[in-house]
Amino acid sequence: MSTWKVVALNAYPKSEGQENVVFTIHWRAELSQDDEVASSYGSVPSTYVAGDPFIEFVDLTEDQVIAWAKESLGEEQVAEIEANLVSQLKSLLNPISISPALPWV
Q1: Does the pTM exceed 0.85?
Q2: Could you list the residue range(s) of the whole structural domain that residue 14 is in?
Q3: Residue 27: what are its φ and ψ, rounded to 5°?
Q4: Strand locations in 16-104, DSSP E?
Q5: 13 class by beta-carbon count within 10 Å (0-12 exposed, 13-18 middle, 19+ buried)
Q6: Model confidence over 31-80: pLDDT tens digits?
Q7: Domain count across the chain
């Protein structure tokens, strides 16, 4: 199972009558096995509209922000990212080519 993390957030100091309003979520998704790690990085917009429920910045949880990021990406793109991680990890665990050290070095 892949692990999603929030790497950084961009926020407006003041927007729509609120403070520290997140407008970009930077995320990383990882899948690992043994010592190999496949990862994907990206960012998505987050839009707050006045009148919508608002969570104060200090009260945000990583789980909530990851849910926002996945919602922004959409189910199909999240599935593509996770499938890509599986493919990357398979390639890392079972490489089709290698670059061994030169024997005379």
Answers
A1: yes
A2: 3-91
A3: -130, 160
A4: 18-33, 36-45
A5: exposed
A6: 999 999 999 999 999 999 888 999 999 999 999 999 999 999 999 999 99
A7: 1
